[in-house]
């Protein structure tokens, strides 16, 4: 099968012209100015890797280890494009845009031999499709990693425990409570109850969009765990719609609840035997 | 492994669980504690579980029943010093110990017992008048 190497030897011969045409193609297909300096460099490395891989392995199987150089290049490019905020089609286009110049090259060189041209064209597209798909896979994998990391960060960020007063903690919840978050919220809260010797914890659910039976159950769990540690919980920030939902669903929270965090804080201070008083009349009203 | 010591502080009994409890030890504690409550006429029982790292449903139930027994003998029970992991475990087991008072540490627990006993006595005094 001596014919197999024709594409690659052609690529090797016409590397610089192919590179220029490819870059022109990329520039045309991507939105203006999206291509950076490294894009040309990547394209050059891509064209170098392409024949090298083909020398060693089957033409159309990128998963074979001999294509390692190509795979690493594609992984690197995909990761970089994810970081730069490219879309999936833009990333895949990097490879697919090589098709046009490559096929043009083939038809220029093999124009007279129809049977051979067809065969080589078929091979070339197959190869590009494989690499393109692999690029897309890498892109998606990197994206998923990014999403996973963000989820983790969100979990940690979104559950701050704030000390409002000595012995009074506040836990402003933002977003829906699922099991994983409840676990982290609970652990954070309980750890802080121990470290700050808090007596009262205010759980503010102003930022919780909906309260269904599951969310209510998670709230109750958190409250019960805090109670076992010896701290009382007050739930605040129940919006009118949520109050209606809770009643309609027949949920029993069995917890002291207040409409706003301010009310809850006032109650907490009262329980601690403290109160907020106005020291003197504010300026401008004295007479 | 020896038995769990029960210390008397004023009219309160302090039980400090410093080792991981096995079931027989828990049963022995129930016997000892009820006898001591009767013998000392204690009004409050404080169980310090700050050293307890592992709980199962049996220990959870045991804590609940100790509280119930003390109540029958006219003593309030306060459980103090529960660790976060233990609290989460008990809640996940569905044992919310709703009949038991809890406090963060021994200090708070003593204050709490004192308050409850005082409130009781005042209520009794009011009724007697």
Q: Could you provide a short overview of the structure?
A:
The complex is a heterodimer of chains A (287) and B (129). With 287 residues, chain A is of the alpha/beta class. Chain A has eleven helices and five strands.
Description:
The complex is a heterodimer of chains A (287) and B (129). By secondary structure, chain A is of the alpha/beta class. Chain A folds into two domains: 2-153, Orthogonal Bundle (Globin-like), CATH 1.10.490; 162-271, Transcription Regulator spoIIAA (2-Layer Sandwich), CATH 3.30.750. Helices cover 62% and strands 9% of the residues of chain A. Chain A has eleven helices and five strands, in the order H-H-H-H-H-H-H-E-E-H-E-H-E-H-E-H. A five-stranded mixed sheet of chain A has the order 1-2-3-4-5, sandwiched between helices. In chain A, helix 10 links the parallel strand 4 and strand 5 (256-258). In chain A, helix 1 runs antiparallel to helix 3 (37-56) and helix 2 crosses helix 3 (37-56). The N and C termini of chain A lie far apart (106 Å). Chain B has 129 residues and is α/β, with parallel strands linked by helices. Chain B has one domain (6-128): Transcription Regulator spoIIAA, CATH 3.30.750. Chain B contains four helices and five strands, in the order ββαβαβαβα. Chain B has helices at 23-40, 57-72, 84-92, 106-128, and strands spanning 6-9, 12-16, 44-48, 76-80, 101-103. A five-stranded mixed sheet of chain B has the order 1-2-3-4-5, with helices on both faces. In chain B, a hairpin with a 2-residue loop joins strand 1 (6-9) and strand 2 (12-16). Chain B starts with 5 loop residues before the first strand and ends with a helix. The model of chain B has no long low-confidence stretch (mean pLDDT 88).
């Amino acid at each position: 099968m001596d014919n197999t190497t024709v594409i690659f030897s052609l690529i090797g011969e016409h590397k610089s012209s192919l590179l220029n045409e490819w870059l022109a193609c990329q520039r045309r297909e991507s939105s203006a100015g999206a291509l950076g300096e490294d894009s040309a460099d990547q394209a050059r490395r891509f064209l170098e890797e392409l024949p090298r891989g083909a020398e060693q392995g089957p033409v159309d199987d990128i998963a074979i280890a001999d294509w390692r150089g190509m795979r690493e290049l594609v992984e690197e490019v995909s990761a970089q494009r994810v970081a730069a905020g490219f879309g999936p089609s833009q990333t895949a286009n990097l490879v697919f845009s090589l098709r046009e110049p490559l096929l043009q090259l083939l038809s220029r060189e093999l124009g007279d031999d129809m049977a051979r041209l067809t065969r080589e064209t078929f091979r070339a597209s197959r190869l590009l499709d494989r690499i393109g798909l692999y690029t897309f896979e890498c892109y998606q994998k990197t994206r998923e990693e990014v999403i996973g990391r963000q989820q983790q960060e969100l979990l940690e960020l979104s559950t701050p425990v704030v000390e409002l007063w000595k012995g009074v903690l506040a836990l402003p919840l933002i977003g829906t409570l699922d099991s994983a978050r409840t676990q982290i919220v609970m652990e954070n809260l309980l750890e802080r109850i121990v470290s700050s010797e808090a007596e009262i914890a205010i759980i503010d659910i102003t930022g919780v969009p909906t309260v269904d039976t599951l969310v209510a159950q998670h709230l109750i769990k958190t409250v019960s765990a805090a109670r076992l540690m010896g701290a009382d919980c007050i739930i605040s920030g129940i919006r009118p719609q949520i109050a209606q939902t809770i009643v309609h669903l027949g949920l029993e929270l069995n917890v002291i609840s207040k409409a706003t965090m301010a009310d809850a804080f006032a109650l907490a201070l009262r329980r601690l035997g403290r109160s907020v008083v106005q020291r003197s009349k504010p300026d401008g009203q004295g007479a | 492994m020896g038995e769990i010591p029960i210390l008397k502080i004023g009219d309160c009994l302090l039980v400090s669980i410093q080792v991981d409890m096995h079931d027989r030890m828990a049963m022995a504690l129930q016997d000892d504690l009820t006898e001591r409550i009767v013998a000392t006429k204690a009004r409050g029982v404080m169980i310090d579980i700050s050293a307890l790292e592992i709980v199962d449903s049996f220990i959870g139930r045991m804590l609940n029943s100790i509280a119930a027994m003390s109540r029958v003998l006219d003593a309030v029970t306060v459980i103090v010093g529960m660790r976060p992991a233990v609290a989460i475990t008990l809640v996940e087991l569905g044992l919310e110990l709703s009949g038991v008072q809890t406090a963060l540490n021994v200090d708070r627990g003593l204050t709490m017992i004192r308050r409850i006993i005082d409130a009781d006595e005042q209520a009794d005094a009011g009724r007697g008048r």
